[in-house]
Write the structure tokens for this entry.
Amino acid sequence: MKFHLLGEKAKVEIDIIAREYPNSFDYWDGNWVISNVKVEIPGYYVDFIASLRTDDIRDFLNDLKLMNKDLSGKAILKNLDSFIYFECEMDKLGHIEWSGETCYPTGSGAVYPLNLYQINHI
């Protein structure tokens, strides 16, 4: 599964590669997925592997669907290890303002704050 956040000059791509613990029946271990994260904005490019949780992705998708239905609201994609943090909010005109940050490697890597401006395609 692959999903994109696209703007005029910005692109975020998250590609779900595989389950991290495919043989686990435990809720906590079974919901980790290995993902390839790519962010391209003018002057910044990053491409790294991150472990994400399926419930974080599900919650983000549900919040985006609610924003689309209500034409207002906020959605956040974050992960437990702080590799990524993306936040979007829809204004009264239907424009979506994005911000976020990436950190790789987690815990000791460079943190890069992102202002993705308006991304109108999800």
The mean pLDDT is 87. The chain is about 15% helix and 55% strand. The chain has one domain: 2-118. Residues 54-70 form the longest helix (17 residues).
